[in-house]
Write a structure and sequence with these properties.
Blueprint (H helix, E strand, L loop, with lengths): L3 E4 L14 H18 L4 H7 L1 E12 L9 E4 L1 E6 L4 E10 L5 E13 L4 E2 L5 H9 L2 E8 L2
Parallel strand pairs: 4-8
Antiparallel strand pairs: 1-3, 2-6, 3-5, 4-5, 5-6, 6-7
Length: about 150
């Protein structure tokens, strides 16, 4: 399943230099991840009912080129690394110009699944998560993580 969206850059996304603020990149990425999970069949409401949610351990952005107001940009999300039991994962997202496809920025996150009732990492990953992560595209350099 291709997980990509065209973005509408808003005036409020800009910094005083006239390009997209660094924190906005993270906001767009988290919104796309949650939208894609919902479209694949796992909504925030479903996760809350089941008592779990994603937790981020590390988030990193590499900025290649500015994004300005009225630029046409796409954003994708792919799984870059995964434990076999899906308890830990790395996702990579790329901002690219449209239609030129020039790389503008890369955001990489590492995370896991949190038991929101007990505030600890999940012991057993729900089948819905396993099925969901099978739908996500994988990066060309995808790797399996050691348990």
């Amino acid at each position: 399943m291709e997980m990509k969206r065209k973005l509408q850059i808003r005036w409020s996304d800009l910094d005083p230099n006239g390009h997209v603020r660094h924190s906005v990149y993270y906001d767009y990425c988290s919104q796309l991840r949650m939208d894609m999970m919902a479209e694949a069949g796992l909504t925030v409401q479903d996760m809350m009912k089941q008592g779990f949610g994603p937790v981020i351990f590390r988030e990193e952005a590499i900025f290649r080129r500015e994004i300005n107001l009225h630029d046409s940009v796409t954003l994708n999300v792919k799984v870059a690394a995964l434990r076999k039991d899906a308890s830990r994962w790395t996702m990579r997202q790329e901002f690219r110009s449209y239609p030129e496809n020039e790389l503008k920025a890369i955001v990489t996150i590492e995370g896991a699944w949190l038991d929101i009732r007990h505030r600890k990492l999940l012991d057993k990953i729900p089948a819905s998560v396993l099925a969901l992560l099978d739908l996500f595209e994988r990066t060309e350099d995808f790797e399996w993580l050691d348990n």
